[in-house]
Design brief:
Layout: E1 2-8, H1 16-24, E2 29-34, H2 43-51, E3 57-60, H3 70-83, E4 86-89, E5 94-95, H4 99-132, H5 145-156, H6 161-168, H7 172-178
Parallel strand pairs: 1-2, 1-3, 3-4
Antiparallel strand pairs: 4-5
Length: 183
C-alpha cells in the first residue's frame, strides 16, 4: 500500500499542491496535517506510521514535510526501516530503496536543519536589535498612559464604565480589569 502524507504549518495554508502530487504518485491513501515542521508531536503522522506495515511505502511531496529537525526525522526514518516501510520524496529525488536516495536524504535533511537554524538565528538577532532600540515585541498599545489615567479619573468621578467604553472604544471588561470596582 502506498500512503501519502501532506503537511502545512498553519490553518491558513492548504495542501492542494501536495495532494495533487501525491495522487499523481499513485498514493492509495493520503493523510493531511496542520502542524509546524519543528515540532515532533504530529498525531496524524504518528497514526499513519502506526497503521503501516512491512512492504508499504510512505510518500511526501517534499522531504521538509516530514520535519525540519534532523534528529526527529532520523528517528522517524529508523522506525520506518525497522517496520520494513520504504520512504520516498517526490521533489527531492529521495527513495530510500536506493543508495543515491539515501545519500540525497541525508544531505537534504542536513540542509533543512541548517535553514531552520539560520531562521532562528535571524529572528533572535532581529529581536535583539529591536530591544536595543527600545522596541519590544507585539503591537503598539492602543492607549497611552495619559489616556488610561484620564479614563480612570472619569470612572472615579462617577462616569459609568459603559460611557467611558463607548467614548474610547475600549471593552467594558477591559475597564473592569484595569480599574476594578473597589477602586
Amino acid at each position: 500500500m502506498i500512503y501519502g502524507y501532506a503537511r502545512v504549518s498553519t490553518n491558513h495554508q492548504d495542501t492542494e499542491l501536495q495532494r495533487s502530487a501525491l495522487e499523481s504518485a499513485g498514493c492509495d491513501h493520503i493523510y493531511e496535517e496542520h502542524a509546524s515542521g519543528r515540532k515532533s508531536n504530529r498525531p496524524v503522522l504518528k497514526r499513519l506510521i502506526a497503521t503501516m506495515q512491512a512492504g508499504d511505502e510512505l510518500v511526501v511531496w517534499k522531504l521538509d514535510r516530514i520535519g525540519r529537525n534532523v534528529l526527529h526525522a532520523l528517528l522517524m526514518f529508523q522506525q520506518l526501516q525497522e517496520k520494513g516501510i520504504n520512504f520516498r520524496s517526490i521533489t527531492d529525488g529521495v527513495d530510500l530503496k536506493t543508495a543515491s536516495g539515501r545519500y540525497n536524504f541525508r544531505n537534504i535533511l542536513s540542509a533543512a536543519q541548517y535553514e531552520s537554524d539560520l531562521n532562528s538565528e535571524r529572528t533572535l538577532a532581529g529581536l535583539a536589535v529591536a530591544r536595543a532600540k527600545g522596541r519590544i515585541g507585539g503591537r503598539r498599545p492602543k492607549f497611552t498612559a495619559e489616556q488610561w489615567e484620564k479614563m480612570r479619573k472619569m470612572i472615579m468621578a462617577g462616569e459609568t464604565r459603559q460611557s467611558v467604553s463607548k467614548g474610547y472604544g475600549v471593552g467594558i471588561s477591559t475597564l473592569y480589569k484595569k480599574f476594578p470596582a473597589n477602586h
